[in-house]
């Protein structure tokens, strides 16, 4: 009799992946239903979780999830799909890939990914295993430039802010540069660590055209004109050198190219920088003094800097600023972390070589030698497809919305519609799925087993499955392994568990299995095990030094010089700016940026999660009240934002915290609830309708997504009558037709 | 004993996690929100102030909602928590109007269309209806997670110190902007914060004496950047740190720890 009242209740420990992720999670499951979710106190994030992670519950039983593999039976954008079996889907994909390899070579297969979900090592392994280097990632506008350019100094270990206190000190001066780490964390550092370290901070300097709670309370808040950050960094170095504030010992003993750097920054006087950046000259001087005098210090950069066509040199300038002030490898400065016993989880793809043959066929490699070295330059690829020279036969896309995040949406849209065979793997229907030939259903992080890892920092964690995925949805690991097994079986595994065993094998004397790791939850190197001043040990170089051609921290980079780039940082105006295109500025008199994030969305994701959508129904554009008044628009208006490429609508928030003359639009937005024929409202509010793909960073090929010109005006009542917002409430469910066997797609190219 | 909360405006970064944690904790219907955020964005003579005020029931010492309630459904517990007995609530909504902070919500049917209107309720919603019933036609509000406090205290846990006796919003806050504790205890963390930073109540002039206080200050100016043990990342972890063998060798380490510490 008592059985009726017994419930099967258990708490499963896992790891959140709602952004780049990494927060420890406790999920309570009762009779197979998640009834509670909270942070895990026994984790590096101390039991905290954000709104995205907590609202993950609404991914479960979400009616808009994709349940089955489907093939498109209508035109692209018609939204008509036929359900197919996994076998049929996978065999078709493998067949198309093999045919492309035989007839056109493996480089005609593109593998693309988004930012989330942790499939990084799988996309790269799949690509390398089948012989293509044409991987499309958003990396070139998010994180890759800083990894590559820090890597020029510290090798694969890169540089991260030391918010951890393991060396006994927290940063005394912190610079938050085009970044709100408190809400957009986990590029490698986490909000909870940063905020904790602020308790011990003497100077907080925030460099952002837009105020935040922290900016309005910081020691110094600098509002540069978007796209001029490199000039600011050069100006700070000018002050440090003129006032002789640099770190004598570090610069003297461990650096290369100081005299050239001194020469390079000589012109960048505070007055010149003030004129370029539209900031008071005192801000340049104060920031320079604080950072050079109150050491140790760190600089947290945001990806807004990497969405600019001078991103390479901007990050080089910031790297030099770190070297000049000795803020490298010192406790409380910028540090390259020692790896945990499980090693670098990226070894899972690095172990497969990118051959010379593969490298030579990477699209864009001849021009963008830093960015298109391991992945292709997506903008160059779009141009090549549109010019009729079809370099891509098969495009296997997982998660990412290239249609949304790439510059010049119209051109990207044209190109993607031309792709002969496109597969998209996702949780929900979105713009890329509507353009696909086959759509595969992916599992959410609460529904899968996997190794959590984003960028090689000091830890990896376990995603432990909490509930079953809906319908026939599968984990990304399973999907990649199944595709891999069919095309390049020698590099793939019998089962996902085997693959996971293989990834964690280096732990505990090389005997750790996935099951043990899953139980252990984390493998990390922290506390007294982390080591600072690695250049004084054999860590990078026998006898000490940096892993660079000169063995020193290079202000003048030998590697960049050998690739034909300027070895020292150079300031360049954005492609369209008041200074570079003064004529255009007369017509488009406002500076447009799309650099800010909402804490409750992760890039293009989560506008279909009711709890998260409740925080911001429509994309918001921020303009200073005085600027708004000047252009006749008011708080709450739906306004047009227009550039030479087109126009979009967003809802205006008159915000006194934004620089006058700057328009800050919400990026990465489409409307999941809009119908398939509009590609889910792709053109309504997406700022990339306005951006250009003609002016790219010489090293990384990154376009100006966060610095261009625009004009704004109120949308007329007539404009608003068009059916632009809302059909369903939170998404669309594809029309799935049961397919008769005879109608099934003929398997091409066995 | 009087439970109260201190909210640190210098730390709140408007992430909305407290709102989400409250929704999870109480299985809140789609259009019901107990914990809310108020954006404050002004330019006062060239000084920009961007702040976020997390608001929830103030659990006033002299609560107008309780005075307004004709059925005694609203009442104040001895520990200061203001409660609504949904069995006694007749849905007259006098309290909704009486609350000067607008922190009460009347649950009408249209506020609960299901998380995905037009589709079946999710498993979380269905389970939630049993584990945490919401009575349509009554008024609701933040209850300081009284169920966590009571269950936790019954197990000897201390609200504001031990997680399982502390409100969910406080536990989840990444900025540690929320602090919970006993306002009557001068040694509690909340009392100390109020004294140290001159804590204030919202609209104190209404005379309701809220149990939610706010503090604010500028960031920076820390006298020392020395890192105490308890503030270091991973200090709370049971699991021991490990070093990659190859890295350890290059660093000149002779041994590598590999076993988990229990």
CATH topology of the domain at 159-339 and 531-562 in chain A: Dimethylsulfoxide Reductase, domain 2
| Integer count of domains of chain B | 1
Largest sheet of chain A: 8 strands, mixed
Count up the helices of chain B.
8
SS content category of chain B: alpha+beta
- Please, what is the average pLDDT of chain B? 95
**Major sheet of chain B, described briefly?**
3 strands, mixed
CA-atom Rg of chain A in angstroms = 25 Å
Helical content of chain A (DSSP H or I, runs of 4+): 25-40%
In what order do the strands lie side by side in the largest sheet of chain A?
7-6-15-16-17-4-5-28
Describe what is shown at a glance.
The complex is a heterodimer of chains A (750) and B (262). With 750 residues, chain A is an alpha/beta fold.
What features would you describe in this structure?
The complex is a heterodimer of chains A (about 750) and B (about 260). In chain A, a hairpin with a 7-residue loop joins strand 4 (about 70) and strand 5. Chain A has an eight-stranded mixed β-sheet with strand order 7-6-15-16-17-4-5-28. A six-stranded mixed barrel of chain A has the order 22-26-23-25-24-27. With about 750 residues, chain A is α/β, with parallel strands linked by helices. In chain A, helix 6 packs antiparallel against helix 9 (about 270-275). By secondary structure, chain B is of the alpha+beta class. Chain B has eight helices and nine strands. The longest helix of chain B is centred in the N-terminal third of the chain and has 9 residues, at about 15-25. Chain B is globular and about 75 Å long. Chain B starts with a strand and ends in a 12-residue tail after the last helix.
């Amino acid at each position: 009799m008592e059985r009726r009242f017994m419930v099967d209740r258990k708490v499963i420990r896992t790891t959140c992946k709602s952004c780049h992720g990494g927060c420890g999670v406790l999920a309570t499951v009762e009779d197979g239903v998640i009834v509670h979710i909270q942070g895990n106190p026994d984790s590096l994030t101390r039991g905290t979780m954000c709104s995205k992670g907590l609202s993950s519950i609404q991914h479960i039983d979400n009616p808009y999830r994709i349940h089955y593999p489907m093939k498109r039976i209508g035109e692209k954008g018609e939204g008509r799909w036929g359900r197919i079996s996994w076998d049929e889907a996978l065999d078709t994909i493998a067949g198309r890939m093999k045919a492309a390899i035989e007839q056109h070579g493996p480089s005609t297969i593109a593998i693309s990914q988004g930012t989330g979900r942790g499939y990084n090592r799988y996309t790269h392994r799949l690509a390398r295993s089948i012989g293509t280097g044409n991987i499309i990632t958003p990396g070139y506008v998010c994180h890759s430039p800083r990894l590559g350019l820090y890597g020029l100094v510290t090798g694969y270990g890169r540089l991260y802010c030391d918010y951890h206190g393991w060396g006994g000190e927290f940063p005394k001066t912190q610079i938050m540069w085009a970044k709100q780490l408190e809400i957009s964390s986990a590029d490698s550092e986490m909000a909870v660590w940063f905020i904790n370290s602020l308790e011990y901070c003497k100077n907080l300097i925030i460099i952002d055209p837009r105020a935040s709670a922290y900016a309005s309370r910081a020691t110094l808040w600098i509002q540069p004109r978007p796209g001029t950050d490199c000039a600011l960094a050069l100006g700070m170095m000018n002050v440090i050198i003129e006032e002789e504030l640099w770190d004598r010992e570090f610069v003297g003993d461990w650096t290369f190219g100081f005299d050239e750097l001194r020469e390079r920054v000589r012109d960048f006087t505070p007055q010149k920088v003030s004129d370029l950046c539209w900031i008071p000259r005192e801000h340049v001087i104060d920031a320079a003094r604080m950072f050079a005098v109150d050491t140790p210090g760190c600089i947290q950069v945001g990806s807004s800097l990497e969405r600019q066509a001078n991103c390479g040199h901007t990050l080089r300038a910031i790297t030099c600023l770190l070297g000049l002030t000795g803020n490298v490898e010192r406790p409380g400065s910028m540090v390259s972390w020692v790896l945990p016993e499980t090693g670098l989880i990226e070894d899972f793809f690095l172990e497969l070589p990118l051959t010379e043959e593969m490298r030579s066929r990477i699209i864009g490699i001849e021009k963008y030698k830093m960015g298109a070295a391991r992945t292709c330059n997506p903008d160059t690829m779009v141009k090549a497809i549109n010019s009729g020279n079809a370099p891509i036969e098969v495009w296997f896309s997982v998660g990412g919305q290239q249609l949304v995040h790439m510059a010049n949406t119209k051109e990207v849209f044209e190109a993607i519609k031309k792709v002969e065979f496109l597969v998209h793997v996702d949780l929900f229907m979105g713009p890329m799925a509507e353009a696909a030939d086959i759509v595969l259903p992916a599992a959410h992080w609460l529904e899968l087993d996997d190794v959590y890892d984003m960028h090689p920092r000091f830890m990896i964690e376990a995603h432990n499955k909490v509930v079953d995925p809906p319908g026939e949805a599968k984990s990304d690991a399973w999907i990649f392994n199944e595709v891999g097994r069919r095309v390049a079986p020698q590099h793939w595994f019998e089962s996902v568990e085997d693959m996971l065993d293989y990834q964690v094998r280096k732990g505990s004397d090389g005997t750790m299995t996935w099951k043990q790791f899953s139980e252990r939850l984390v493998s990390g190197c922290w506390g007294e095990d982390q080591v600072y001043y690695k250049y004084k040990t054999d860590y990078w170089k026998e006898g000490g030094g940096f892993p660079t051609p000169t063995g020193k921290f290079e202000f003048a980079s030998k590697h960049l010089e050998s690739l034909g780039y300027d070895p020292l940082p150079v300031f360049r105006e954005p492609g369209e700016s008041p200074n570079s295109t003064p004529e255009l500025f007369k017509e488009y008199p406002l500076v447009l940026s799309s650099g800010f994030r909402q804490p409750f969305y992760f890039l293009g994701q989560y506008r279909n999660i009711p709890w998260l959508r409740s925080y911001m129904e429509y994309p918001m554009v921020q303009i200073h009240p005085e600027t708004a008044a000047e252009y006749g628009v008011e708080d709450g208006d739906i306004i047009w934002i227009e550039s030479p490429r087109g126009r979009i609508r967003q809802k205006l928030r008159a915000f006194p915290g934004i620089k006058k003359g700057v328009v800050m639009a919400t990026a990465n937005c489409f409307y999941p609830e809009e119908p398939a024929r509009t590609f889910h409202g792709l053109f309504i509010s997406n700022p990339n309708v306005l951006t250009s793909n003609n002016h790219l960073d010489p090293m990384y090929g990154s376009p100006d997504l966060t610095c261009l010109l625009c004009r704004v005006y109120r949308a007329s009542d007539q404009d608003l009558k068009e059916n632009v917002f809302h059909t369903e409430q939170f998404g669309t469910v594809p029309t799935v037709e049961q397919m008769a066997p005879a109608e099934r797609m003929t398997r091409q190219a066995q | 004993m009087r439970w109260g909360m201190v909210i640190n405006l210098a730390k709140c970064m408007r992430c909305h996690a407290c709102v989400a944690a409250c929704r999870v904790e109480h299985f809140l219907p789609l259009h019901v929100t107990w914990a809310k955020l108020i954006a404050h964005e002004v330019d006062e003579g060239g000084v920009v102030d961007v702040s976020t005020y997390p608001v929830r029931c103030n659990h006033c010492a002299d609560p107008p909602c309780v005075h307004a309630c004709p059925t005694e459904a609203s009442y104040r517990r001895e520990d200061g928590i203001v409660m609504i007995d949904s069995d006694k609530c007749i849905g007259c909504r006098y309290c909704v109007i009486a609350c000067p902070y607008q922190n009460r919500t009347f649950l009408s049917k249209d506020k609960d269309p299901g998380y995905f209107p037009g589709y079946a309720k999710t498993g979380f919603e269905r389970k939630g209806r049993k584990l945490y019933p919401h009575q349509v036609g009554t008024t609701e509000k933040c209850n300081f997670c009284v169920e966590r406090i009571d269950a936790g205290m019954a197990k000897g846990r201390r609200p504001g110190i031990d997680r399982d006796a502390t409100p969910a919003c406080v536990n989840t806050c990444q900025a540690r902007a929320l602090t919970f504790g006993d306002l009557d205890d001068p040694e509690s963390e909340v009392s100390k914060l109020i004294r140290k930073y001159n804590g204030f109540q919202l609209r104190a002039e209404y005379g309701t004496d809220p149990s939610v206080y706010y503090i604010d200050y500028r960031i920076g100016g820390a006298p020392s950047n020395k890192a105490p043990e308890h503030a270091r990342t991973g200090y709370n972890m049971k699991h021991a740190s490990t070093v990659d063998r190859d890295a350890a060798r290059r660093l000149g380490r002779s041994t590598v720890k590999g076993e988990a510490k229990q």
